[in-house]
Structures are given as structure tokens and as C-alpha cells.
Amino acid sequence: MNVVGCSSTGFPCVTLHKKSPWDGKFISYVDSSWNNLRALRSSDCMGRILKNGGFGFSHTKSSPKIGPMQVLCMDYPRPELENTVSFLEAAKLSSSFRDCIRPTKPLEVVIAGAGLAGLSTAKYLADAGHKPILLEARDVLGGKIAAWKDKDGDWYETGLHIFFAAYPNIQNLFGELGINDRLQWKEHSMIFAMPSKPGEFSRFDFPDVLPAPFNGVWAILKNNEMLTWSEKLKFAIGLLPAMIGGQSYIEAQDSLSVTEWMKRQGVPDRVNDEVFIAMSKALNFINPDELSMQCILIALNRFLQEKHGSKMAFLDGNPPERLCMPIVDHIRSLGGQVQLNSRVQKIELNSDRTVKQFLLNNGSVITGDAYVFAAPVDILKLLLPEEWKEIPCFQKLNKLVGVPVINVHLWFDRKLKNTYDHLLFSRSPILSVYADMSVTCKEYYDPNRSMLELVFAPAEDWILRSDSDIIDATMKELAKLFPDEIAADQSKAKILKYHVVKTPRSVYKTVPNCEPCRPLQRSPIEGFYLSGDYTKQKYLASMEGAVLSGKLCARAIVQDYDTLNVRTLRGPSAQMFVT
How many angstroms separate the CA atoms of 404 and 460, rounded? Predict the structure, then answer.
């Protein structure tokens, strides 16, 4: 899908959308009396022409005779990632499963949870020649990226999911499945609403001609609306230790909240108000006074170290069908199994306290050569056998608690104009990020009506409130973002329908001093493994972290093949293995 969005002034551009008869892709025609520009979606040629022709700048240009001309918001070519260090490292890990020695007796590995972590674990075990049995409690794939179709055929999702170029394992996964074309890349920008100027936005535009970190530095220096030069300088000085100290410094900041780190480094409070509040809510759905500074520094490190790191893409449709099903098809093609409506009710143990079997809620049992728990950490804590609760590794899990989050979908009776074909940072006290999905996503495209998807966060005080309360609060905030188009009382744009998706326990809350509590994928129990973004990996609570955790879990099982194979032959051992 390729549509024309809107410039920072909010003026619309007339756009006609037709379907290409030869490939089903959208063609977008910008209809004007002065240029008759025609742009073809998903064309590298198109991307070069627009780049060289001077389109895609962040400011609106106007003709005194004709009226305002709009920025062309479009899908951009996939960035060149294949030669980056992180992409090559992720590719090497992926190939290690395909290239390893085939097992003489494949392991049957039972995996609980078909979110990205469980799907990743199963996918890479299948690549290594083993037989995963993937169990999902619900009737839908995806876990935290699940989505549902309503009676009208419209999809609503658990969250607003963005795929960064700085996600090397995710990007490798798309390539391995042959679905790179399902990511709709947007221009390399970050766009923030301006609360002091309702309806206006401020942009950080990353120039393609500069390498990292200079493209990021340029984007920050060129934006004079959110931070003054003095504030930028003090912020840069505050970040110097992280730039010099590298990963060891970043890890050491886990003991500090973002707010505490800022005070220690002499960073002005306005940097928090203008940047870090929005960034904290986007990363972990909480405010800077709660979030560990390590989380912010990891994100900044990836965004500044990699030229395309902060470049964003939207999936071209609903996650269960467009991302999860290709993984499932791959797993099944290699002999693995995927079962929905298979909720684990109890982890039953042998006499030596290793896992005997998973008992499902329908009374059936599933046995295997190894077991993986890939559901969220809060569910693991509920199902943890009494015999394991005194083990230090599992005791530390009490520090890891999922954060509540709410995803709101609003279908309006008209096409909203004051928006972009991009992710937008609302900078609202109760909203995090949002997007007009009727513009950004091919499957959700609608030329006549907007569908806004918004992340309502922090949500702790709202998770038990009624849907109508949440919608009323959301509309009050939207009236500030769309002052000419939306009123809280719906006297302007009217809501045709809405969906509110509440997740009481989402990703783990990345508060200070959590890092030592995150477990390795190989648990102290022989034959029992953990997978999930809360486990030890460098991308914290994210889709990338979930996929990487699955790969690391699969690698641990492959490495333990001989031990697991012998264990299956000999039966339960005389004692529990604890490290």
C-alpha cells in the first residue's frame, strides 16, 4: 500500500488508489494540476527517483497560485542490512542450526507458548533436525502479537508493533521465511506531537547520505523545536560516558532509573519532558522515573551505532497470518507439530524433580525428550512446581513482573488529515504511540475512513476501568492531536466502532536492578528450558528479544543433545541437576 499522508501543517493531498492488474499491489496517483506525479509502490526505481528528484523532505512547500503541496508519504525500499555486523552475527547463529550435524535420533521437544519466543524456538529446533511439539493455550497464534477479526472482518491487535532495522534476528527471520516483502518500510524519521502546539509535529529526519552515528547527530542538531542548543549540549555531555564506556557502562546503569541517571549526569529536566517520557513509554509502557536507564541506553546504542537502526517498518497485515503462520508452515514442513487450544495446566515431575510431562487443561498429557516454557514469566511463576520454588534461579523471577498495557482501535466516519504514513509519538500523559493504520498498513487500508491504533500507557491505573472510560479519555487526548477534526464529544469526527484490548501482564517491567534476575535459557533443571524476552539476551523486552531468546534456547538444546538423548534412554536420574 502506498498512500499520501499529510505534512506538518495538516493540509491533505488528493490521492486516488487503484489496484495493479498484474500483481495486486497498490499504485498511488497524486492528482494535481501541476505535476501528475505517479508513484508505484514497492519499486526500488520509484524510491531512487523520489530521492534524487527532491521529494520526501519534512516541510510542506506551497505555491501561491495553486495552494499547498504535500509531502509524499510512501513505502520505502528495504534498507541495506546484510553487511551490518549485527545482521551477520544473527545470520551466523541462524545458519548454525541448518549446518549442524543431523541427529541420529531427533529429540521431541515440547514447547509451551506460541508467541514469537516459542515459534522461534520451534523453528530453529526444526532447522536443526529435531521435532518440536508447540502448544498454544489460546485459539490464536502470536502471544503478545496476537490479533483477532471482528464480525465486520476488521482486525484488532494486542499491540502496535514496529519492526526496526536494528532488529537483526527479526530481519533474518523474515528473510529465511521468504517474506521480506511483508514489511512496509517508512521514511527514516521520528515524529513527535507538540503538546504546546496542538495539531503540530516535530521531526527528527535521518539523512541517508551520512553514516552512523552522524546521521543521528544530524537529526538531533537539525531539530530546534524540542530542545535548545544548550540542552542538546548538556545531553551530549551526559551521554559521553556511555559512548566511551560502551557495553560495560550500559550494563552498569541498570541500578538507576532514567530520572536518577539524568540528575546524576546533569541532563536538564526538559530533555526528560521532551524526549525521555515518550521514549520510555514506547519502550516499556512506563515513565522515566520507573524505567531502568539501561533500557534507554541499549536503544540509543543500537540507533546511533547502526545507520538504519532506527528506521521503522510496519507489517503489511495482521501478525498471526502474515508472520506467525509462515513460521508454523515452516515448522510443519520439517516434521514439527503446532497445536492450538492446548493450555498447560500443570508441570508434572519425576521423583528426581525433573519434568515428567505437561498436563493440559483437557486432561491429556504431553511427553518429550526436553521441555521448554515459552509463555510469559508471570504464567511461569503461577505454574512453577513447589519443588522448584526454593531454587535461586526461580526465586529471582519474583522481581520480574509484567507491565499492564492497553491497545485501542478507533474506526472513524471520515479520513483524518492531520497524520502521517508513519508511527507517531503522541507525548500525551496517557497515550504512548499511535498510527493511522488505514494509511500505514496494506491490509487495513481504507481511502475513506481512518482507523487509529493507539497504545494506552502507562495503564496501571486504567486496566480495571471500563472500555467506555478508556475511550472517553482517549478522545480527549485525540482532540489535542487533531484539533480541527476531533472533539471529545464527537461533534466533529464520529467513532463508528472501537475495540479495546487489555493485557494485564505484558512484557516484563524493566525497572532498575532487574538484570541480575533474568534467567538463562538453560534452566537448573536438566531437560527444562526457558524462552521469552525476559530471559537473558541483549534486546530486553521486545519482539527482537523474544526471537533471539528462542534461538538461544534452541542452541542450548542442540548443545545438550547427547545428555538429553542419554537421559531419555536411562530414564529419570537419581538426583536433580542444579547449577
Answer: 6
In the predicted structure, residue 521 carries a pLDDT above the cut 50? yes
Q: In whole angstroms, give the CA distance from residue 469 to residue 293.
A: 32
Nearest to 510 by CA among 404, 429, 401, 425: 401
Q: Is the Cβ–Cβ distance between 418 and 478 less than 8 Å? A: no
Spatial distance between the Cα atoms of 472 and 458, rounded to a whole number of angstroms = 16
Give me the pLDDT at residue 5, please. Answer: 33
Cell of 244: 566511551
pLDDT in tens, 333-358: 999 999 999 999 999 999 999 999 99
How far apart CA 425 and CA 471 sit, in angstroms, is 19
For 464-516, write each residue's pLDDT tens digit. Answer: 999 999 999 999 999 999 999 999 999 999 999 999 999 999 999 999 999 99
> How far lies 545's CA from each of 196, 284, 299, 399, 411, in Å?
35, 13, 12, 19, 32
**pLDDT tens digits, residue range 203-215?**
999 999 999 999 9
Averaged over 171-196, what is the pLDDT? Answer: 97
DSSP structure class, residue 103: P
Q: Is the pTM higher than 0.85?
A: yes
Digit-coded pLDDT (tens) for 48-105: 222 333 323 333 323 333 333 333 447 899 999 999 999 999 999 999 999 999 999 9
With CA atoms as reference, report the closest residue to 550 among 87, 118, 112, 127: 118
Taking alpha carbons only, the member of 355, 245, 224, 342 closest to residue 294 is 245
- The band of 245, judged by pLDDT with boundaries at 50, 70 and 90, is confident
Tell me which long-range contacts 561-565 makes (C-beta under 8 A, separation of at least 24).
561/103, 561/107, 563/526, 564/107, 564/369, 564/370, 564/527, 565/103, 565/105, 565/107, 565/369
Average pLDDT over residues 392-421: 97
Determine the angle formed by the axes of helices 293-305 and 229-252, rounding to 10 degrees: 110
Q: What is the CA radius of gyration of the chain?
A: 24
Mean pLDDT computed over every residue of the chain: 87
The whole-angstrom separation of Cα 437 and Cα 477 is 18
Angle at which helices 214-222 and 293-305 cross, to 10°: 110
Mean pLDDT of 550-564: 97
Distance between CA atoms of 304 and 292, rounded to whole angstroms? 19
- Grid coordinates representing 415 are 479520513
Of 390, 353, 334, nearest in space to 527 by CA: 353
DSSP 404: P
Q: Name the region of 319 (left: φ>0; alpha: ψ -120 to 50; beta: rest).
A: alpha
CA distance 300 to 308: 13
Omega of the bond leading into 288 within 30 degrees of 0 (cis): no
Please list, in sequence order, all residues whose beta carbon lies within 8 angstroms of the beta carbon of residue 527, skipping any fewer than 6 positions away.
354, 355, 369, 370, 371, 564, 567
In the structure grid, which three cell numbers stand for residue 197, read together? Answer: 502546539
Q: How far is CA 212 from the centre of its chain?
A: 22
